Amino acid sequence: MRLTLNQISTTDDGLTSAAIPFSAVVQPLAEVPPEEGCVPLVDFGEAGPIRCSRCRAYINPFFNFIDRGRNFVCNICGMVSAVPRDYFCEIDQNGMRRDVAERPELNRGAVDFAAPAEYQARPPLPPPLVVLLETTYASVTACVLEVVVGALRALLPKMAPHTRFALVTFNDSLHFYAGSETGLRQYCCPDVTEAVLPLPAHQLLLPIETKLSAIDQMLHAVPALFAGTKRPDAALGAAIGACHLLLEKTGGRLLVFQHTLPGIQPMKLTHRDDVRQYGTDKERALFAPVDASWTSLANQLSSAQICVSSFHFTAGNYVDIASQSTLARQTGGQVYMYANCVPEARHVWATKMQTELARNMLRDFGYEGVMRFRTSKGLRVEQYLMGQLKVGDVDIDMPGFDADSAFAVTFKLDDKLEESSTPCLQCALLYTTVLGERRIRVLTLGLQATSAMSSLYRYADLDALTNVLMRQAVLSSSKMSLHQARENIISTAINTLYNYRKTCAATTSAGQLILPESLKLLPLYALALTKSNLLRAGTEIRADERAALMAQAGRLAIVSSIAAVYPRLFALHNLTNNDCAQVGADGVPCLPATLPLSHEKLEPDGAFLLDDSVALYIWCGRGISQDFLQSVLQVSSLEGVDVARLTLVPLDNPISKRVHALINAIRSQRPHLMQSVSVLGPKAPLEARFLSMLIEDRAQASMSYVEFLCHVHRQIQNKFN
């Protein structure tokens, strides 16, 4: 849990004038580095964890024990409550319990509590996994069916043995599979207007522990069953409805693999990607569901505790990800998009899909999540910035939380805080583990109240602020144009810097642009966000890709969001062994120094790696040495070579080892996806996209970084005048 402000103003006027959203970016089930140990599990038995009797806050390191340890004061509401007899411990001369070092709930900011029976609406069970797989002619000929089935066969033996698994396939009809004494049986449902299950759900959900061989036989047979299909249409809406019936009593995970624009009712989709709408007020309709039926279905799935992740395969065709991604955004799932899915490029997109599917299926996962934020007196929750905007101080129900998913919460100041007091925020997530155990993940964070505006700016967190600005821009895209979203970002940056100048640096020369130390890169990140693939103007980023990026932005952790906003540029031709071999104290590989994102840094005899958090691009200049090309790409020259077909494979030489060490270090920072590598050269098809990410340069419709700094300075001066 990271805050945009680690010290906050004691008054609402001070917080408002700072013009910095007071927010927390939270990743509840984030993987903990090995050197920190796992999140401790504390079991208080049937009585459950100790909680404040008034606000129901969970015991945490900020509880103040008084009366020789017999009572405690809640750090959230100030209520004094008695300590249970079996939890009593004397306090020392400093007012600390003598057993504080032995109790994780009193010395750790993150802790898991075992949930007693009263926290369970129904007995927890290991939730099942359902795979919904398209088997149209296009999906089969593009090798999507074969690749997905092969990945599932490799991954299912690694799943928890008690997992129950079901496969549903669809084209213009639905197909269910079940094992029997006589072998595998397929049940076909040709009437998709009102889909029903051919068997009770428990007969279609096969336990991996006892039915793994039957499941493997089933998956092995599926590609052959549809090898000769000529059916072009996809009844996706009916298929998802059938999966809802399959999981409505148990909840669980649904993985959807989709390739063809669904052309059959219910919930038929049509081609609505019109480039003439780009840059107009009509463009925002392209990033919202085509009608209310998709939102209604998402609500039904969420109510049944079904978490949807969708995998979309395209070959330049439009599939309306904006409508389909609503299911994942409202249920806590993840949206994946694979472009250029043709057999010739199979080695690229198939490897990426297999890696990302493995992460999706095997990472830590919390089912049936119920989350609550509690704040100290004077603070309150304003909004939850998740896949969908949720307003108010309410319990948040989310069918799925995984190790990679993050969200943001914004707060308001309702009452004046005491100077130097320690306001606290507590996030409590009730969830079910993959083993069927009900737990409560509790994260508690304290900050400091101050009346000094300089302290508020000094302890601001630019990375967290950028993440929040990105989320606000994405969630506003359904109500305003992308141009207005970009203007809002710039306006926020200008207001923040103006108020800093007015309250903390009023005596400095008017001819200077004064930036707080913690936010000195705010203009750069604001400009970069407006030029990112997520928001930038133009027709290069099509509606499907932008909708997929918006869905991904709604769950991005801070480490990924910063590179998505301001990509990292590395000089490959200057790499040394030390650049790629260093490991920090936290066990994370240390990356070499990055370069400013400007075309003037691209030396014609150099090679550069650009990381935009989604993909990796290697750009080679015309004068790159033959030694580098031979050592890394196995070619002696780029003349007459189609660089798009070049692949990067590990070779037994120092240069190749250094390049791959850097790529692996970058990928290790983002386990939620597999960043594929594209090789570029001058005049290559993807070079225009690469150059568009050099955001410090002037673009056709946007300013350079230097011009933008001048613009910000002028706007601040105008506010004073």
General description of the model:
Strands 9, 10, 11, 12, 13, 14, 15 and 16 form an eight-stranded mixed sheet that branches. With 721 residues, the chain is α+β, with helices and mostly antiparallel strands. 45% of the residues are buried. The mean pLDDT is 93. The chain has 21 helices and 28 strands. The protein has three domains: 158 residues, Immunoglobulin-like (Sandwich); 228 residues, Rossmann fold; 128 residues, 3-Layer(aba) Sandwich (Severin), CATH 3.40.20.10. The longest helix has 23 residues. It starts with a strand and ends with a helix.
Shape: globular
Distance between the termini: 40 Å
Alpha-carbon Rg, integer = 27 Å
Largest sheet: 8 strands, mixed
Indicate the structural class. Answer: alpha+beta
CATH topology of the largest domain: Rossmann fold
Summarize the entry for a quick read.
This protein folds into 3 domains: 2-48 and 105-120 and 366-460, Immunoglobulin-like; 135-362, Rossmann fold, CATH 3.40.50; 567-694, 3-Layer(aba) Sandwich (Severin), CATH 3.40.20.10.
Provide keyphrases for this structure.
eight-stranded mixed sheet, Rossmann fold, alpha+beta, 3 domains, 721 residues, Severin
Would you spell out the secondary-structure blueprint of this structure?
Blueprint: E1 2-3, E2 7-9, H1 12-18, E3 23-26, E4 41-42, E5 64-66, E6 71-73, E7 80-82, H2 104-107, E8 110-114, E9 129-134, H3 137-141, H4 144-155, E10 164-170, E11 174-180, E12 183-189, H5 201-204, E13 206-207, H6 208-225, H7 236-247, E14 252-258, H8 292-303, E15 306-313, H9 321-331, E16 335-338, H10 346-362, E17 365-375, E18 379-385, E19 389-391, E20 396-402, E21 407-413, E22 424-432, E23 438-446, E24 448-450, H11 453-458, H12 462-476, H13 482-504, H14 522-531, H15 543-553, H16 558-565, E25 568-571, H17 577-581, E26 607-611, E27 616-620, H18 626-632, H19 654-668, E28 677-680, H20 687-692, H21 705-720
Parallel strand pairs: 2-24, 4-8, 9-10, 9-14, 14-15, 15-16, 27-28
Antiparallel strand pairs: 1-3, 3-21, 5-6, 6-7, 8-23, 10-11, 10-13, 11-12, 17-20, 17-22, 18-19, 18-21, 22-23, 25-26, 26-27
Helix pairs in contact: 4-6, 4-10, 8-9, 9-15, 12-13, 12-16, 13-14, 13-21
